[in-house]
Design goal:
This protein has 662 residues and is of the alpha/beta class. 44% of the residues lie in helices and 21% in strands. The protein folds into five domains: 124 residues, Response regulator (Rossmann fold), CATH 3.40.50.2300; 105 residues, PAS domain (Beta-Lactamase, 2-Layer Sandwich); 53 residues; 168 residues, Histidine kinase-like ATPase, C-terminal domain (Heat Shock Protein 90, 2-Layer Sandwich), CATH 3.30.565.10; 118 residues, Rossmann fold (3-Layer(aba) Sandwich), CATH 3.40.50.2300. The strands form five sheets. A five-stranded parallel beta sheet has the order 2-1-3-4-5, sandwiched between helices. Strands 7-6-10-9-8 form a five-stranded antiparallel beta sheet, with helices on both faces. A hairpin with a 5-residue loop joins strand 6 and strand 7.
Length: 662
């Protein structure tokens, strides 16, 4: 047993339980999940093994002979190299004190016997994923620290270089007549001191402020302002130079203009060096990106920074517009657009989470592919050409959009890995009409289907590999090629969407995955019933709504949206405050964040329904969950980020069935 996941993706799990039958159950459960369990029955055996080997996780019974589970956890957490080792405690007592004791001792999770194998597998998978993410984050932080140190050293060297230069220092009176012209100015501009002193500043220096109007800059300087920038200027002998110049207004003790100071650094050689350095840094940046958390996550971070830059800059400009008495409509539009695009990016990121249940909606397949086009390029990297061949007038399909994005991204990643030396990735769509015989051969009903094909020009597969490609845990890739979404998952998602997937491949030629999805007209009534509901036009005036949200800004925003509609908003900053408000009077609806400290939105909803079972509850979430902490579907969900109209529309739908009381 060694630290890190095994080559084929499973994890090494050290299991301790004194019950023979339970040890057998645990071993089978972990083997079914693709892990590699090592089972012991005493606590002291665990300590002995930890002296020689490092598992990926521990699964410990609370009551063990030799050394108890709690003592084991404390011993593990007391050793520095075991601080991050995931630990799941098993107990036969569903007792709060036992659970709290285990968690306080350092257990990451606790599971009450008896339990479903899937529950243990899921919790263990989540802990292993968190461990891997934490490790990747530490590596990323180390890389960033090295980069910060390198850049800091570089900036220090540049600063020392600039301080060693002979800068031009020039002073002028309020009428812009030169009073002081130092040796540095003589060297940089080529004008001798005798010629410069007494002359007007703009007769010696170019009256140039880059792209800005000289008249406006000069007026700003006269009002006490400052200008700084990089300029390309001409010396006395006609040479073109680059300088970093600053023009500052000097004021006396009464605030009147006493003169002007000009400082110029000769950047001619540095300008060339800086351009070369920027090119080198760009190349180095691309190399470092390949070593970080992965192309996909880096691209997402890059896009988020772009959106945040637009949001912060537009907000600052909008504030200036408001202070100037103007309406900042354009700035607000840019903020809204950037926020919506950031929200779309978050939804794409959540496509890789397996926590959401299937929610089929009518969807345009070509539109989903077009939205993911940029992410395709980011995932596959250079050397692979993307060829989209999207059919016109393609029927809609009824699918879970998140599942469809998972399928597409997994097939694209699979194609990328099949083309280590580059090639062409083709994604095409078309309409396919299946005859009765063709449909029977694929286990489908005859009729119109939408065909999606993802094809690569990679290494291909032999027949044995092709026949096993959809088997769970089967892989031909090395341990560093895992994506978290294998082809078995693709097969499952396509099947759950009412479609079928097939694959053809030839060694040295490439591989093509073909998916058939029912066209909208052929969709089952049960699926159609899950499409977006029609808008509900219902007045909210006079209704009392309790809002539980621990983010102050979001709580304020919800109040601002609902207040003008006539809703009486009872704003609470925690689940406990909301419980107190619920005890005062029955509201018409409860709006609650899902994840809050002390009491979750799920727990709050259960408290409310204990008194008023029919109370409508709207859950606000930003992490893509569709079920509560008990695995039950949440009926009404509003996903962050959302627009004011989204909040009003969903709230109307939530309270509409209960409007008869009003």
């Amino acid at each position: 047993m060694s630290q890190g996941q095994h080559r084929d993706g499973g994890a090494a799990i050290l299991v301790a339980d004194d019950d023979f039958a339970m040890r057998h159950v645990l071993e089978e459960c972990l083997l079914d999940a693709g892990h590699f369990p090592v089972v012991v029955h005493r606590g002291d055996e665990v300590l002995e093994r930890l002296e020689h080997v490092m598992p990926d996780a521990l699964v410990l019974d609370h009551a063990l002979p030799g050394v108890s589970g709690l003592e084991l956890v404390r011993a593990v957490r007391g050793q520095a190299h075991l601080q991050d080792l995931p630990v799941i405690m098993l107990t036969a007592h569903d007792d709060t004190a036992v659970r709290l004791g285990a968690l306080e001792a350092g257990a990451d999770d606790i599971l009450t016997k008896p339990f479903e194998p899937l529950e243990l597998q899921t919790r263990l998978r989540n802990l292993l994923r968190l461990k891997n993410l934490r490790r990747a984050l530490e590596e990323r932080n180390f890389t960033l620290e090295e980069e910060v140190a390198r850049r800091s050293a570089q900036l220090s060297r540049q600063s020392a270089l600039l301080q060693a230069l002979s800068d031009a220092i020039i002073f002028a009176d309020p009428e812009l007549r030169i009073l002081t012209w130092n040796a540095g100015a003589e060297v940089i501009y080529g004008h001798p001191r005798e010629e410069a002193v007494g002359a007007r500043l703009w007769d010696v220096l170019p009256r140039d402020f880059g792209r800005e109007d000289p008249e406006q800059v000069e007026q700003a300087l006269r009002r006490g302002g400052r200008w700084a920038g990089e300029l390309q200027q001409t010396t006395a002998d006609g040479r073109e130079i680059w300088v970093q110049a600053s023009f500052t207004t000097l004021q006396d003790h009464r605030g009147r203009t006493a003169g002007y100071a000009v400082v110029a650094h000769d950047l001619t050689e540095l300008h060339l060096a800086r351009s070369q350095l920027a090119e080198a840094e760009a190349r180095g940046h691309e190399a470092r990106k390949m070593e970080a958390l992965g192309r996909l996550i880096r691209g997402i971070a890059h896009d988020f920074n772009n959106y945040l830059a637009v949001i912060t800059s537009s907000a600052a400009l909008g504030q200036e517009e408001v202070e100037a008495g103007r309406a900042p409509a354009e700035d607000l539009a840019m903020v809204l657009d950037a926020a919506q695009r950031a929200g779309d990016l978050t939804k794409q990121l959540l496509a890789f989470s397996k926590r959401q249940s299937m929610a089929p909606v009518r969807t345009e397949l070509n539109g989903v592919i077009a939205r993911l086009r940029q992410m395709f390029g980011r995932v596959i990297g250079p050397g692979v050409q993307v060829d989209l061949r999207l059919a016109q007038e393609l029927p809609d399909v009824v699918v879970d959009v998140v599942a469809l994005e998972q399928v597409l991204m997994n097939l694209v990643v699979n194609a990328r890995d099949a083309m280590p030396n580059g090639g062409t990735l083709t994604v095409d769509t078309a309409v396919a009409a299946l005859t009765e015989a063709e449909a029977r051969a694929q286990g489908l009903a005859p009729g119109a289907y939408v065909r999606l094909r993802v094809e690569d020009t990679g290494v291909g597969m032999d027949e044995d590999t092709r026949s096993r490609v959809f088997e769970p845990f089967f892989s031909t890739k090395g341990p560093d090629k895992g994506t978290g979404l294998d082809l078995a998952t693709v097969y499952k998602l396509v099947q759950e969407s009412g479609g079928q997937i097939s694959v053809r491949s030839e060694p040295g030629v490439g591989t093509a995955f073909e998916i058939l999805l029912p066209g909208f007209e052929e969709a089952a009534e049960s699926d159609l019933a899950r499409l977006d509901e029609a808008p509900v036009h219902l007045s909210l005036a006079g209704r009392r709504v309790i809002v539980a949200e621990d983010e102050p800004a979001l709580l304020t925003m919800i109040q601002r949206v609902l207040g003008p509609t006539g809703v009486t908003v009872v704003a609470t900053a925690s689940g406990r405050e909301a419980v107190a408000a619920l005890e005062m009077a029955r509201p018409d609806a409860l709006i609650t964040a899902v994840r809050m400290p002390e009491m979750s939105g799920w727990a709050l909803a259960r408290r409310a329904h204990a008194t008023w079972p029919e109370l409508p509850v709207l859950f606000v979430t930003g992490d893509g969950v569709d079920v509560d902490d008990h695995g039950e579907p949440m009926q009404h969900i509003l996903r962050k980020p959302f627009l004011p109209r989204d909040l009003l529309t969903v709230l109307q739908r939530v309270v509409a069935p209960h409007s008869a009381r009003k």
